[in-house]
Amino acid sequence: MTIFNFISLFGGLALFLFGMNTMSGNLEKTAGGKLEKILKVMTDKPIKALLLGTAITATIQSSSAVTVMLVGLVNSGIMQLGQAIGVIMGSNIGTTITAWILSLAGIESDNLFIQLLKPTALSAIIAFIGILLIMTSKKNRTKDIGGICLGFAILMFGMDMMSDAMSPLSEMESFRNLLVMFENPLLGLLLGIVLTAVIQSSSATVGILQALSLTGAISYGMAIPIIMGQNIGTCITAVLSSIGVSKNAKRVSAVHVYFNIIGTAILLTGFYVSNLIFKFAFVETSVDPAGVAIIHSIFNIATTVILFPFSKLLEKLARKTVKDKNATGKSAFIDDRLLNSPSLAVSESKNYTVKMGQVAIDALLDSISLVEKFDTKTVDRIIESEQKLDDYEDKLGTFLVKVSSHNLTDDDANTVSTLLHAIGDFERIGDHAVNIAKAAQEISDKNISFSDNATAELKVATNAIREILELTEKAFAENDFALAMRVEPLEQVVDDLLAEIKSRHIARLTGGKCTIELGFVLSDLLTNYERVSDHCSNIAVCLIQISKSVFDTHEYLNDYKSSGSETFTTSFEEYKDKYILPQK
Asked: Do 251 and 359 sit in the same domain of this protein?
C-alpha cells in the first residue's frame, strides 16, 4: 500500500458518499410530496406500514433519511408512534437493495451483457445518459432523473476506486494479521458499530466491506458480525435527530435502536450457537460482494420476521424508557427535521395552511352570526382564533422561507409561492372577523337595530359572503382550479351588491330614514365584507395563476374580466341572479 492507494481509497469513499447523497436526494425530489400522503394514509395497519417502509427506503435509498423523516412527522403530531414502528422495520429491509446494486462489482463472466453490468462499464453508460438528460431537457423532473443516473454512476465509480485502492491489501502479511483480530465476533460487531456511527450510513459501510471483500481476505465469519454491527451503528442518525423533540418522537429513535440491538443479539447468538453444533463450512470461506448482500438481507429480513409480531411490546419498551414525567409531550408546529425532505415539508406546509384557512373562515362566519345574535363566548372564540392565526402566519411564514432556500421542484416552488400569499390573506380575514365582532358588540351595547330594508339588504350580502368564503376554502383545500375560477365572478357580484347597499344607505340618510350612528356601523360592516371578498379573490387568483404560470395579478384579472371569458360571464350572471337586493 502506497500513499496513492490511500488517496484513491478516500477519494473513492468521497465519491461513493457524494453519489449516494445525490442519487437519494434526486429520488426523493422525484417522489415529491406523495411520500407524506402515502405515509399518513397507508400506516393504519402494521403490515401495510412494513411494506410501505420497505418500498420508500428502496426508493430513496436511505433508511436513515426515512427514520429522521418519521421523527419529524411524529414530533409534528402528524403520525403516531404505533404507525411509525412498522415503517422502521420495513426501512431496514428496503435499505438492503443498495448492497445488491453494489454486488455488481463482484460479477465475473466473459459474457458481453454481464460485462456491461460491471461498474466500469455500467457507471460510464449511466453517467452519459444522466448528463444527456440534464443538458437536453427543459423539465426539472427529467433533470432530476438525470441527477439520479449521475448519482448512481458516481456511487459505482467510487466503489470501483475503493476496490482498486484496497487490492494490494490482499498481499500484505500485516493486513492479514490485523484481520485475525476481527475473527472475534465482538470486535467485528464493535467495528461495524463504530464505522457506521462515524459515516452515518449503513449502505456506505456495507459498500466499504464489499470493496474490501474483493481482496479475498474477508471471510464470512468476519463479515457477519461486522454487518450486524453496521445495523446498530446506523441508529446514531435517529438518536441525533431525536435531540430536542417531543417524548413521542424520542420513542421513534428508541424503537429503532431496540429493534436493531435485540435483532442483533438474537441472530448473532443463534448463529454462533448453531455454528458450534453444526460447524458451518462456509464460515472460513472468503466472502464476495454478493455474499455481503446476502448476509445483509438475511439479517434484516430475519430480524423483521422475528420482531414484527412484537411491535406492541417494542412500543411499550420505548414508552417505559422515554417516560413522560408529567410533561405534555407537545408537538412541534412543523418540525424543522422535515426540511431534510423538502417535498414532504412543502406538502405538510400546505396541510397547515389549509388548517389556517379553516380557522380564519370559521372565525369570520362566527363574527357574521354575532350581527344577528350577540354572544360574548363567540367573541372570545374569535379573538382566540385571531391570535392563533397570527401564530400560524409567523411560524408558517418562517418555515416556508426556510423551505424555499432548498432545491425544490417547479411544482413545489409554485406551491410555496401560493402558500406565502395565502397565509397573509387568511390572517387578514381573521382581522376582519375581529372588526365585525366589534361592530356587532357596538350594536348590542347600544341596543340599536337597522331598518327592515337595511336588514334585508345586509342579509343578501351576508349570504354572498358566506358562499365566497366556503367556495374559497374548498378551492384552496382541494386545489380545485374550476372552483377557484368561480370566486372572482362572485367577488364582482359582492362588490356590486355592497356599492348598491351603500348608495341606498346614503339615500335613506339624506331622507332622514336612518341615523348617522347606524350609518357608521353599517359602513364598518360593509367595508369589512368588501375586504374579506377581496382576500378571497386574492387566494383564488393565486391558485389559478400558479396553475397557469402567470404571475401578474392585475394583468390576469383584467384579461379575465375584459376578454369576455365565457366562464367569467356565465358565473357572474348566475351569481347576479342568485343575489338580488329587495326592492327599495
From this structure: no
